[in-house]
Design goal:
Layout lengths: L2 H7 L2 E3 L3 E3 L5 E5 L17 E5 L2 H8 L1 E3 L1 E7 L5 E8 L4 E8 L4 E7 L5 E7 L2 E6 L4 E5 L7
Antiparallel strand pairs: 1-5, 2-3, 2-9, 3-4, 6-7, 7-8, 8-9, 10-11, 11-12
Length: 146
């Protein structure tokens, strides 16, 4: 287990936008914040992955943040659960996919998403809601999130 996995076990996450795995691999994550949609609640939140980056350098440059969990929800297929919440001063959101044993499969850290407060499932997709009421739909069976 790498640094990201150890941070998760300690209740922390890297403080840079990214989709992280416990083996310290990561890719850029581009998520527009809720301010782009305010005051129109319930709008979709764009979610795009990008190029790989150096996790150790990201942690050195941006630091880490305490995880503030708002929900954990079992996945419909019983393979694990989703965790979501935030951290920092209220603008940071995170989503984490956990295996059945509670180990982290991935964590998505989003500096401008705002904290996530809930999830509902639609087939292989999960639709997350942040504290502004905006929605982020992710295909959990897609290659980046499987």
């Amino acid at each position: 287990m790498g640094t990201v996995g150890e941070l998760w076990r300690a209740g922390e996450m890297p403080l840079r936008d990214g989709l992280y795995r416990p083996d310290d691999t990561a890719v850029d994550l581009h998520v527009d914040g809720p301010g782009a949609y305010h005051p129109d609640a319930g709008q979709p939140i764009p979610f795009r992955t990008g190029a790989p980056f150096d996790v150790a350098l990201a942690i050195e440059e941006h630091g880490v943040e305490q995880v503030d969990t708002n929900f954990e929800s079992p996945l419909p297929d019983g393979s694990g659960r989703m965790s979501g919440g935030g951290g920092g001063m209220g603008n940071i959101g995170y989503l984490a996919r956990l295996d059945a044993d509670g180990s982290m499969r991935w964590i998505a850290v989003m500096f401008h998403s705002n904290p996530f407060v809930g999830v509902r499932y639609e087939g292989t997709s999960a639709v997350f809601t942040n504290d502004w009421g905006n929605l982020l739909a992710l295909d959990l069976a897609g290659p980046a999130l499987a």
